[in-house]
Amino acid sequence: MKDREFETLGIILEIKNHNDNDGILKILINDGIRFLYAKGIQKSQSKNKLNTPLLGLVNLEIIKSKFINKISTLKRAKVISVFPMNPMLQNIYNLVLYFLNYINNKNLDFNKYRIFLESVERNPNQSLSYLLLEILRVFGMKPNFESCVECKNKTNIIDFEFYKGGYLCKEHSNNYKNSDYLRALYWLEHDFSIFIKDFDENISIKINAEMIEILKSII
């Protein structure tokens, strides 16, 4: 039995009832979406039930199935961080759950996800920006935040377009973006604490709308 047990971090995406007291968990782990059989998880006194909140980041102890075509079994779960129970965050909750369900065989940075969970109640839109950028990276769409995507020039930057892949200099765009918007994007990539401190929610809302549009176009 011991050689079939392992631990991993995971995000709880769904719990479906199975039989009288059991359940099937849909989880996102470091190599994609998987399913686990969770014995007794519907019981009110189940410790695993309390430690598997939807969108929670959880440490999972798993027993691999002896059979290739059977799902593994949850042995023990320990919650690390949870999505806040706040009705004001429902739209963000729905959006995150939607996008995470499309991440299969891809490697999400769980440390960044933990930072998102710990920040989202205080700074909802900035935190969503932080997570959406990580999801863009997972899908191979992370922009260039260092120089013009066309010529690699680091000066005379005037524009940023997600669909073009990042910053653009005045030789390759005539669309002059607000300097605060351009700076916000830089700090979103390089230092999340500065991004939160120096830039307001309105800039994040604009950034989020553009990232959501890109993500919905590729999934």
Detailed description of the structure:
This protein is an alpha+beta fold. The chain folds into 2 domains: 5-81, Nucleic acid-binding proteins (OB fold (Dihydrolipoamide Acetyltransferase, E2P)); 87-218, de novo design (two linked rop proteins). It has 7 helices and 7 strands; from the N terminus they run βββαββαααββααα. The protein has helices at 47-50, 90-100, 110-119, 124-138, 179-190, 192-198, 201-218; strands at 5-18, 22-29, 32-38, 57-63, 72-81, 157-161, 166-169. It has a 5-stranded mixed beta barrel. Strands 6-7 form a two-stranded antiparallel sheet. Strand 4 and strand 5 (72-81) form a beta hairpin. Helix 2 (90-100) packs parallel to helix 4 (124-138) and helix 5 runs antiparallel to helix 6 (192-198). The protein is elongated and about 65 Å long. The mean pLDDT is 95. This is DNA replication and repair protein RecO. One of its GO terms (cellular component) is bacterial nucleoid. One of its GO terms (biological process) is double-strand break repair.
Number of DSSP-assigned strands: 7
How many separate domains?
Answer: 2
Please report which band the strand proportion falls in: under 5%, 5-15%, 15-25%, 25-35%, 35-45% or over 45%: 25-35%
Largest sheet: 5 strands, mixed, barrel
The SS-based structural class is alpha+beta
Q: Quote the CATH topology of the largest domain.
A: de novo design (two linked rop proteins)
Order of helices and strands: EEEHEEHHHEEHHH
N- and C-termini, Cα separation: 39 Å
Number of helices: 7
CATH architecture of the largest domain: Up-down Bundle
Average predicted local confidence, pLDDT:
95
Q: Using only CA atoms, what is the Rg? A: 20 Å
CATH class of the largest domain: Mainly Alpha
Organism: Metamycoplasma auris
Pfam families: RecO_C
InterPro entries: ARFGAP/RecO (IPR037278), RecO (IPR003717)
Protein name: DNA replication and repair protein RecO
